[in-house]
Amino acid sequence: MKWYERITKIDRRIIYLLLTSLVILPFFVKVTIPQNIMPQTKRLFDFIESIPPNDKAVMISFDYTPQTQPECHPMAKALLRHCFSRGIPVIGLSYDPQAPGLALDAITSIAQEFDSLAAINDDSFDYGVDYVYLGWKSGRIAAQLDMGEEIVGVYPRDYFGNVIDSFPLMNKVRNYKNVAIVVIISSADYPLDWIRYPQTRYGVNVGAGLTAVMAPKYYPFLQTGQMSGMMSGMKGAAEYEKLVFDHGYARTLGTAETGMNSQSMIHILIMIFIILGNVGYFFSRRGKKGKTGDIRE
Amino acid sequence: MSSDPWIWIGAFLTLMIFSFLYKDNPFYKFGEHLFVGVANGYYIVFYWQNSLRPNLFEPLGAGEFIYVVPLLLGLMYFTRFIPKISWLVRIPIGFMIGWGAGLSIPAYFQAEVLRQLEGTVVAPTSFSNPTSGVWSLFILIGVICTLIYFFFSKEHKGVLGHTSRLGIIFIMIGFGASFGYTVMARVSLLIGRVQFLLGPWLGLID
Amino acid sequence: MKRKLPLAICFLMGIVMIVQFFIPHPVSLEFGSVIYRWVIVLTAFALVLAIGNLIRHHTYKISKRKEDWPYSIVTLAGMTGMAAIGLVWGVDPESLYQKIYLNVMAPLGATMFALLAYYMASAAYRAFRARSLEATLLLVSAFIVMIGFMPFGQYIHPRFPAFAEWVMQVPNMASQRGILLGVAFGSIATALKIILGIERSWLGGKE
């Protein structure tokens, strides 16, 4: 077998082994490469930065599944840290049936962090005052539209079964007029529904944290201003973590940042494999052309 | 290493699915079928707790008899199993499809047609910054050529042929960018699993 | 009657929802809310139907001893067990139901998606060939994005990340918008055809 044929026939198990090794290696050989921040991530960050504290709330729709947790969970945590650090109240909700467990994990872990910080500062950080998790609702389009009139009509009780009228936060935030932005952290096309329905009817600002697969599709909405910013994939999560860290809202970078080194290695590996495959292909074509005087595929 | 049995269960199930990379085997099949079963059980409880009980049975119990209408419509779904009256299943389907179609038309127009056309149109104000004005023109040409490529009612010859060729160039650049992002997405999922195995399970990383 | 009644209901619902969108009066909004709640209930009934189909499929496989029938027992046991645990012991954050969700369902689902990384790498190596101008453009664009958005991209050239961002914001955005507009026009046309009864494939059946 000629060398150019050999390089197109590498066994798939070798590819799998190389891939696995290069994912694992950066966890033990730590190299810090500074992130460059994409404009759409900065736009979302700046929007949240511009919201005055204790004024309007940020509504976060946690709509990702365990399958996309590595990309979306760090986004959720970084965004929560940002909002809580700035004193911006957060209303959480979900429309994906698999999301509430992950939403609760993100909210409770960050809330506990701020609760312990508040205790040190002789302050308080309370459920119902600083944040509320409304839970999951089916018929999302209906719920999204109805919240434009009154949130309590859609969610009479929160995820834990408490009457939401009893919360000071929900007495302040009655509908979208009291919501600065809705950020949808999603692994499906949930942001499109927010743009099509509540934004069209009520003019609510929309931001998103999306898996990298979906991000290219949403650039037209960024350009028209229908979206006020976007985090794209694990890179977007790492960028937001960096912005939050650089502004002093977090003491450490998160899990997305540590995953970026593995990302870089795998990207290089895949590009090398594609180049190898194409080099082998072109030399095979040339070899066949030399023999027959004609190009055959 | 973790001492939490739940972490060990998660780790073993992860390795069972990864075993498919070598070849299909009983461990993978077990994990796959367990996932289907547990996921369906999850949805049953979820929809009962969050959908049927609060939106149908509780209002009916409280005397709001208007909810008999959705109850009857919902029960009509099961008529598909009774051949003599199976045509009744078309009623709830017609209700849902009509509702969805009617709701979507103005929403699609506003959000995806009018606003997107607004963003594509090049006006003199676009050239307030010359560079962004040039790119706005580029985008306009790209959008028109892409739309022309997907117009199959006329043969792609002459002017139509050239513009659709330009359209395919834009589409290929767009698909290439999407592929790049897709690589990032898929690798992220693998990194997440490896982080779980190395971290919470084996305790080798923070 | 068997076709006319559903078509009439579809037409009525379609027209009502279009008109309702443009009337901001409280009565119209309340009407919309009531209809929305009915849709929630109907969605849940559709799930009941789907679960019934799954049970039917797997019990048939077991009764007829079809290939891999023991795994059907795993599926049915998993479904029954999870449903029973959730319905009997509740769904609180500390419940067994949530523990099974986080430690059984989540790892299984996440790992299935993680396998895609391997398949994608193998497929890209075997099939991604620059056979034509279009394929070459796709390849080059993919490389630009893959390099530009990684931290090391800025060390190849300081403006590489900005160039990758330009590729996303200009040519990619143009093609995505063209596709978005095409899909929107198609969806609106299909929705109109359904409401007006021109598209009747959803009726199924002969009579």
CA(first)-CA(last) distance of chain C? 10 Å
Helix/strand/pairing category of chain C: mainly alpha
Instruction: Provide the helix percentage of chain C.
Output: over 70%
Number of DSSP strands of chain A? Answer: 6
Biggest sheet details of chain C: none
What does the largest sheet of chain A look like? Answer: 6 strands, parallel
Q: Count the DSSP helices of chain C.
A: 7
Structural class of chain A: alpha/beta
Return residue spans of chain C where pLDDT drops below 50 for at least 5 consecutive residues.
none
User: What's the helix-strand series of chain C?
Assistant: HHHHHHH
CATH-assigned fold name of the largest domain in chain A: Rossmann fold
Biggest contact:
B-C, 112 and 121 residues
The percentage of residues in β strands of chain C lies in under 5%
Task: Explain what you see.
The complex is a heterotrimer of chains A (297), B (206) and C (207). Chain A has 2 domains: 3-27 and 261-291; 35-253, Rossmann fold, CATH 3.40.50. Chain A contains 12 helices and 6 strands. Chain A has helices at 3-6, 12-28, 39-49, 69-85, 99-120, 140-146, 151-154, 168-172, 190-202, 219-224, 233-246, 255-292; strands at 57-63, 90-94, 131-136, 179-186, 206-210, 230-232. In chain A, helix 10 (219-224) links the parallel strand 5 and strand 6 (230-232). In chain A, helix 4 (69-85) runs parallel beside helix 5, helix 4 runs parallel beside helix 11 (233-246) and helix 11 (233-246) runs antiparallel to helix 12. In chain B, helix 1 (5-18) packs across helix 2 (26-61), helix 1 (5-18) crosses helix 6 and helix 5 (130-149) crosses helix 6. Chain B is 75% helix and 0% strand. The longest helix of chain B has 44 residues, at 158-201. In chain B, 46% of the residues are buried. With 206 residues, chain B is an all-alpha fold. The longest helix of chain C has 38 residues, at 26-63. With 207 residues, chain C is an all-alpha fold. Classes of the chains: A alpha/beta (297), B mainly alpha (206), C mainly alpha (207). Chains B and C meet through helix 1, helix 2, helix 3, helix 4 and helix 5 of B and helix 1, helix 2, helix 3, helix 4 and helix 5 of C.
